[in-house]
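Appendix C reproduces, verbatim, an entry submitted by the partner laboratory led by Prof. M.T., so that reviewers can inspect both the input and the predicted structure.
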Amino acid sequence: MTRIDDTFARLNAEGRKAFVAYVMAGDPNYETSLEVVKGLPSAGVDIIELGLPFTDPMADGPTIQLAGQRALEAGQTLEKTLQMARELRKEDDKTPIVMMGYYNPIYNRGVDQFLADAKAAGIDGLIVVDLPPEEDDELCIPAQKAGLNFIRLATPTTDDARLPKVLQNTSGFVYYVSITGITGAADAQAGDVGPEVARIKAQTDLPVIVGFGIKTPEASESIASVADGAVVGSAIVSEIAAGKPVSEVLDFVKSLADGAHRA
């Protein structure tokens, strides 16, 4: 059982939906980013997605791309991202941390070394968007053996023929991408999402969390009501990009979390 499994078991027992928040590690700088990350649990965040900045983020829209650029320009690295997890773990040993990004920085570090370091830093799961199921031997299977959840994305274009392959070695939860296209683009619609979540849940016992296109507390509540929870990334990153004080960013996060928890 990972912290992710424990969190969903607890939420399920409480009859509550999960709220997952994404932030780009090191945006706009290490100190500010760490302050935001440390404040997420008390703002109601059930699972933290920590973005690993990368120079060629193919799945991300302008908001997340620019956040990654700011982080890299401020000197953020994979090591510093692991250090952020270590710092959070000094204060919080319960909130799951999922590292989300691309394979290149992990490959450069070496898979075995990365997994040992991630586990030691208190990382609970990985979302690596450019490794399809056909490459499971590369990172997914070793990650599971190391005790980390490997979380896969399903999309509106993941048809019934493809879905079993996507679910095959997934653990922790399934991340359903509510829209076609990049992060931060269109708005998610519960009426479209609900049937897709049901289709996925017919083939897995894993929780299904929905992300992309959720920008308001109302949308967070609406989407969480037809899934096991909601993920918000670009809307939070936009608040950071606007230079808002950390307290205001966390107030916004809390409003989103409250929305999901009302569902």
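DSSP finds twelve helices and nine strands in the chain. Additional entries are available on request from the coordinating office.
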